[in-house]
Structure formats: C-alpha cells, structure tokens
Amino acid sequence: MSLLVLKFGGTSVADLERIRNVAAHVKREVDGGNACAVVVSAMAGQTNQLVALVEEAWGYKVRSQNGAAASAHYDTREYDAVVSSGEQVTSGLLALVLQAAGVQARSWQGWQIPLRTDAAHRAARITGVEVGELKARMLDGEVAVIAGFQGIAPGNRIATLGRGGSDTSAVALAAALQADRCDIYTDVDGVYTTDPRVVPKAHRLDRISYEEMLEMASQGAKVLQTRSVELAMQKGVRVLVRSSFDAPDLAGKGDAETGGGLGTLVCHEDEIVEQNVVSGIAYARDEAKVTLLKVADKPGVAAQVFGPLAEAHINVDMIVQNVSDDGRHTDMTFTVQSADLDRALEVLRNSKDSIGYLDLRGSTDIAKVSAIGVGMRSHAGVAAQMFSALAEKGINIEAISTSEIKISVLIDAAYAELAVRTLHSLFGLDR
Amino acid sequence: MSLLVLKFGGTSVADLERIRNVAAHVKREVDGGNACAVVVSAMAGQTNQLVALVEEAWGYKVRSQNGAAASAHYDTREYDAVVSSGEQVTSGLLALVLQAAGVQARSWQGWQIPLRTDAAHRAARITGVEVGELKARMLDGEVAVIAGFQGIAPGNRIATLGRGGSDTSAVALAAALQADRCDIYTDVDGVYTTDPRVVPKAHRLDRISYEEMLEMASQGAKVLQTRSVELAMQKGVRVLVRSSFDAPDLAGKGDAETGGGLGTLVCHEDEIVEQNVVSGIAYARDEAKVTLLKVADKPGVAAQVFGPLAEAHINVDMIVQNVSDDGRHTDMTFTVQSADLDRALEVLRNSKDSIGYLDLRGSTDIAKVSAIGVGMRSHAGVAAQMFSALAEKGINIEAISTSEIKISVLIDAAYAELAVRTLHSLFGLDR
To answer: Which positions bind ATP (chains A, B) (predicted)?
Structure first.
C-alpha cells in the first residue's frame, strides 16, 4: 500500500461529468490498495466570478469606470471568505460522487484539517499541517477530499494561498502525510522539453529535477506553480505531473516509484540516470521592458531606481546597465511583468527628480527565452553555443541573465518561436 | 444604545445593488448608536443551484430519469458543506460593502462564532451559541455579519438548519446576545391579517403575539419560519418583521421598543393592548386529502394506518374518522403535504392487507382555512360563528381541527378565496 496525494485543477473539476472522471481516477488508486488524499480546486471559472463579486462589492469596478484611481485595498480576510467557497463546493461534490461510486470519502476544509497559514490573507503561506485525524482516517480506507487553495490563519479566519495555491496545498499535505507521491493531474500529460504548440518535435520528459522544474516554472512554463516546486524540493516530495484526461483505467496502476510510466516525475536529480545538458526550453511573453535613458552613472542610482519599485511591490526580473559613454551617464534596462508596466512607469515618472534621467521608455514587444538543465553545471560553453546559434538566425539579444542551471535571453517578441525552435534543436531535444 | 440583530433573506441580498441597500439599513442603525449583528441568507436562487449540484453529484436526477426509484440518501454532511457556501459568500460581500461605506464590519461563519448544532445534518437544531468574542467586538463598534442557516455539528462538520433556517439563526443569536430586538427584513412590510392578494382590505398588524404568529406560520403564512417563532417565544426574543425594500433613511430610527412603528412586532401578548378576538386568517393550498373507504372499525386500526406513514417520515395534519354506518366499517380522511401525496398513497397501498380497506382516494383540490387569535380563549362561540358564515356562502366543511387559539377547516379549493374573504369580514378585520 502506498500513500498518495492526488491534485485536480479547475478544468479537471469544471462540471459533474469531469468530477466523475476524477472519481474514476481516485477509485483506480483506491482499488489498487492505496490510501488517498485528493486536493481539488474550484470549478473552472468559479474563482474568477467570486473575485469579480468581491471587487464589485468594494466598488473597484465602479471607481475604475469613473476614471478615478482604482483601489484594491479591500479587506483580504473577506476576499478569502468569499473566494474560498469555490473549493468548498467541489470538495463536497467530489466526496458525494465518490460515495455514489462506492468509495468511502469525506470532504475537509482547510480549517477542519487544520492547514495553518500565516496572516498574509489572499497570498498566505502555509505554516503547518496537522494531519493526525486525517491520516488515521485515510489509513482506515477513507479518501480525504481536501478543499485546496485555503487554510486557516491566526485569528480563526480562512486564508487563501494565492492563485494556483492548490498545487502548494497538495505538496504541503504530501509532505505532512509523508506520502509516497503527489500526483498533480492537469490538462497536459506531463512536462515537455518546450511548448509543443511552438515546437511539434517537443517531447515529454519522463523525469525532471526539482531545480530544473523550478527554473521552468519561473521562466514561463505554466504546468506547476513555482511555490509548490520550491516546497517539493525543500521537503523531498516526489511530484508526478499527469493528465486528468487520460482514460482512468489506462492511466497506470499506481506504481509508487514512477506512477506507471505516465506523466513526468519531478524528483531529486540523483534519481535521473541519463541527464541531458539542457532539459528544456522555456519562454515567456508576459514581461515588459523598461529603459531609462541617460541616468547619472554614480553610486546609489540603482537604489534610487529600484527602491520605489520595490515599495510599490513591483518585481523586477532582468537588469542590464550599459557601459557609460561619457563616464557620467548610462542607459539602464530592466524587465517587469507586463501587468505592472503602467504602474512601473508611473512610479519612475514620480521619482524622476530623485533619480535624474533624460527619458523613460516602456515596451511589451519582448520575449524571454531560457535554456534550462542541471547538466550545465558540468558543461562549459553552453552559453556561447546558445548565443552563436541565435546570432546565426539574426536574432538580437537585448539582455542576458544566468544561473547555475539556466541561461535566459531577452529578445524581440517577433523572434520568440524561432528562438525556441533553434535552441530546442541545438541542444538535441527534437524527437 | 440598543443591541440589534438584523436578518436579510435571499431576495434582499439577490445582487450587489440589493446588498448595498442592506448596508444602508445597517448603517442607519449603526449611525443611530446601536450595536448590530446582521444575519444573511444566500443570494436568491443560489441555494437551489447548490442543492441541484448535490443531487446531480449523487446521481439523483439521473436515476429519476431512468425511471428507477430516486434516492435522496446522500451524505447530508457533504450536502451541508456544499450548500452552506452560499451564505459564506454573502456574508463576506456584505462585510466588504459595509467597509466600503465606512462601517466597521467582519464576516462570521457558523463555525467561527461558534454556533453549535446537533448532528442532524441538513435540518440541524441549534444547541448553543457562544457569543463572547462576537459580542465584545459588536460593543466595540464592529458590525458582525453572520452567515445564516448554518452552524457547526459535533465532529467539526458544517451543519445547515434546513430551509428558512436563517430566521432561526437570527433569533438564536438575538437570544444569546440578549438583543433588544431581532429585525427580520423580508419582501413584505409586516404580518397582515390575511394575504392582501386575496383580500385587498387586509391590513398590517402592528403587533402579534408569539402564539398567534406560530399558528399563522404553521397554517400557511410564509412570512416567518415556524421554528424561529417557537424559539422566539421560548426565549422571549422581540421580533420585528419589516420590509427590506423600504427606503433605508425612512425606515425608522431604531426605536428599540417598536422599531419606529414600521413593520409588525412579534411579542408577548401582554404587550398587546387592544386584542381582537381573531387576529388573522391564514390559508394553505399545499395540503392533499387522503380517504380510506370502508376501513375496519376496530381498535388499533389507526395505528395500522398512521404507523407506516410515520415510518416514511410523512407528516399527517388533520384527521377525521366518520361514525360507523354498520358498526363494523368506517371511512377515514386525513391530510398530508401535497408533495408527500404520491408517497403516502404508495405506503398505504403496500399496507392494504394489514390495514384492510375497500378503496383508497387522494385529492389535491382542497384548501385549509384558519382563523387565529388569542382572544378566542375568552370568547365562546367563535367556531359556531365561523361555521354558519361559511354555510351561508354554501361552503361545505370537509374536516375541522382546533386548538386553543385557532380553528381550521378543510374545504374545496375552489372556495378558498371566498372563505378567506368571508372570515376576514366576519371577524372585523376589513379596513
């Protein structure tokens, strides 16, 4: 018998037909003799509807329409009370569907487990999961159906974990339960070497290391939430990414080691026998470029630029500072999330006097393309290979950032697909 | 300063515009210096949608369509988890709308208060309300916005109180808080002498006693849930029934004694100075008549008829047994809820051998009309007056039931309006 955590996202529980399909997956694992906890998201679209209600309640939309500054500073504890109801509904429905299929099951809300969080409502972090009763009942043969995305904060209030938080719920539960595996069922059948819509020759990876998965998630692959990968790495939780649309009876027989050869296992790199230098190519189009022209080239200027942005909770990703032409001025380029661009420009305009620059430009016509692989650690020259392959295709690199296992380049958005295909071939990933 | 509980039903919180109207009512009371708790139902229609999801999850509809016997024996704890989410949403939204209007407020789920119930999920009874923290915060100026219809059962599971349970939530809270008044805001502006759609001369009662209100509710008036009136009577909670559609600024200034002369105050009969003999005429069309022909007239036959019905959880209301013609057989007539008629007939058909009867008939073409008033206790001859007035109009009485403060008659449904108008005039209630 293995102890498994299964997580199903919003599209997998979008209606009762799909919830029945989820139940079939769960039943297969139960029939295979496994003790199961199932973490569910809200039905697809439900969370957006609830968020819209909250914003309308606070007058967010009305004020935006009037042209006045919109304020999102509503009471996030109430946001959490409203928005968490979506997962409450699906957890109860799945428990009923499982019972109707003859599987013992009960629903658990975050506060019932309890899954404890800090007080950062709407984006809370998990501080502890008390699984005593839950685990005892699982080992007794009862499936625990858990409302994802939520826990209980100090003060006895419901807290949500932020968008995509159900992945994190699942991994945290798997860690607390010392589960053999955490299966993340999603709408793709695993982690690919790159987006198959861009590169038809992309293939699914059987295994990927935590470090690589973390870079893939951070660099634009949507398959897992970054925080959940961090947590899995930290706690050593084996995560299997697989498709909820596979026929339940064909979808493996619950082999605790690999999940029956389906999906992609996210695990420690020691478990991966044959390691490519580069495991995958990620790309992101949701970044925007900000350029400050003729900034004073003096100590402290970076703090004057990035301090106000940090205060406005705007994350800055890549930063490039050109060599000074005249020894007194330089150009500075960096990227932010596209959604933050207008706000970033406003912050910088308001700080123009303290920073001192000639002009300010913003653009969203950029893409970030990244090559990722733990093999880079032991292979020199990967960056050089990458830059020359892009140069051969006439693709100009606007900025570069690297880590031990990743090289990212910022390029003109028009060349994004070409760059991804070029790098996918270059590093031997085409099948 | 008074301590008030305000309750708003589903139509009063049907959308955000109406929730803003609710907030205006609450703000008026807060501005008047009162400490307020507000109990809310789910948005109109929401509970029905959630119930439909539960039934579909359990396969209820699918089985019904297949012609097989439908089973409602799903896990009511999961029903409660799903269905209680409707009130969770409105409580959070109203708290936000109040905050946006500058009123300090927070939402409370049943389990957060806690409002404790027994384990009879889907129709739980309140066993206790711990208002320590809630009341302290109310007296500190924070409006408590409470998800109605729900509490927490033994075993830490959410329990709902059954349809219309938010009225009961409000009264139970008012009792626990020792509130000065419990205002039930609804879609009518109070309790009427009878249904104004049937009798245009009906008028709103300024006050009505608990006993009368209880009979009115039991006999068909929909304005308050029966259980909430019982609880108010038992705990001595002063209940004001008023309209949520009144302009908030005109709707009284929070006079704890009477609520500013608006609505109908449900209170102890000692508080009612001028008491009519009859206070109101109620009628119900949702009952059905069952007649057993030629039942053996012997001891124990009633038990053989009503035992199986009780086992099937079918409530029987009025019962008439005719005088035996031949000393050996009699006809027996009784009423059940229309919704239970088919099931009642099936139960009786299955028990035909043990009961022994010639024929079985069911009909829904009946109405029950009731005259209600505590004044009956000290006035003889009310029943006689009533029967002769109906006889004058040619209305045949098929069955009679009485209590100390009520006389009900069962008549042909076609005469229901005529009977109500006749009795309304007879007892001097026309305005």
So the answer is: 7-10, 186-187, 192, 197, 222-223
Q: In what order do the strands lie in the sheet with A280-284?
A: A280-284, A366-372, A406-412, A397-403
**The CATH number of the domain covering residues in B275-431:** 3.30.2130.10
> In this predicted model, which residue has the larger pLDDT, B188 or B35?
B35
Q: What is the pLDDT of residue B431?
A: 85
How far is the CA of B102 from the CAs of A3, B72, B96, B347, B397, in angstroms? 50, 45, 10, 58, 59
Closest-CA distance of chain A to residue B373, Å: 44
Residues of chain B with C-beta less than 8 angstroms from the C-beta of A93: 53-54, 57, 78, 82
Taking CB atoms and an 8 Å cutoff, what residues of chain B touch A157?
112
CATH superfamily of B3-271: Acetylglutamate kinase-like (3.40.1160.10)
Nearest residue, CB atoms, A78 vs list B16, B75, B96: B96
Please state, as a whole number, how many other Cβ atoms lie within 10 Å of the Cβ of residue B49.
13
- The whole-angstrom separation of Cα B150 and Cα B121 is 10
Q: B51, B103, B100: which is closest to B76 by C-alpha?
A: B51
Which residue does chain B place closest to A75, by CA atoms? B96
Residues 369-428 of chain B whose Cβ lies under 8 A from any Cβ of chain A: none
**What CA–CA distance (Å, rounded) separates A175 from A112?**
18
* A156–B112 CB contact, under 8 Å: yes
Residues A332-371 have pLDDT tens digits of 899 999 999 999 999 999 999 988 899 999 999 999 999 9
What residues form DSSP beta bridges with B282? B370
Contact A108, A91 (CB under 8 A): yes
- Whether the CB-CB separation of B206 and B255 falls below 8 Å is answered with no
Phi, psi of A224 (to 5 degrees): -135, 150
- Give the pLDDT of residue B61: 54
**Mean of the pLDDT values across residues B211-235?**
88
Q: What is the DSSP string of A338-370?
A: GGGHHHHHHHHHHTHHHH--SEEEEE--EEEEE
Whole-angstrom Cα distance, residue A215 to residue A419?
A: 18
pLDDT digits (tens, 9 = 90+) for B348-400: 999 998 888 999 999 999 999 999 999 888 888 899 999 999 999 999 998 88
Q: What DSSP character marks residue A390?
A: H
Q: What number of C-beta contacts closer than 8 Å exist between A and B?
A: 115
Q: How far apart are CA A190 and CA B55, in angstroms?
A: 34
pLDDT bin (cut points 50, 70, 90) of residue A261 is low
B143-147 vs B35-40, strand pairing mode = parallel
Token pair for A225: 């939430």
Q: Are A242 and A206 in contact (CB under 8 A)?
A: no
Provide the pLDDT for residue B64.
Answer: 45
Q: What is the mean pLDDT of residues A401-428?
A: 94
Q: Are strands A406-412 and A397-403 parallel, antiparallel or unpaired?
A: antiparallel
Task: Provide the pairing of β-strand A126-129 with A115-117.
Answer: antiparallel
Average confidence score pLDDT of chain A: 90
Q: Are A17 and A94 in contact (CB under 8 A)?
A: no
Query: Is the pLDDT reported for residue A72 higher than 60?
Result: no
User: Are the CB atoms for A170 and A186 separated by under 8 Å?
Assistant: no
Non-local (6+) Cβ contacts of B158 within 8 A are: A109, B77, B80, B81, B84, B110, B111, B150, B151, B152
Q: Does B134 contact A at CB distance below 8 Å?
A: no
The beta-strand segments (E) located in A45-180 are 105-108, 115-117, 126-129, 143-147, 150-153, 157-160
Cα angle value A43/A45/A47 (rounded, 5°): 80
Judge: B97–A57 Cβ closer than 8 Å, yes or no.
Answer: yes
Fold of A3-270: Carbamate kinase (3.40.1160)
Q: Do A107 and B59 make contact, defined as CB atoms within 8 angstroms?
A: no
Q: Locate tokens 């809270």: which residue? A: B173
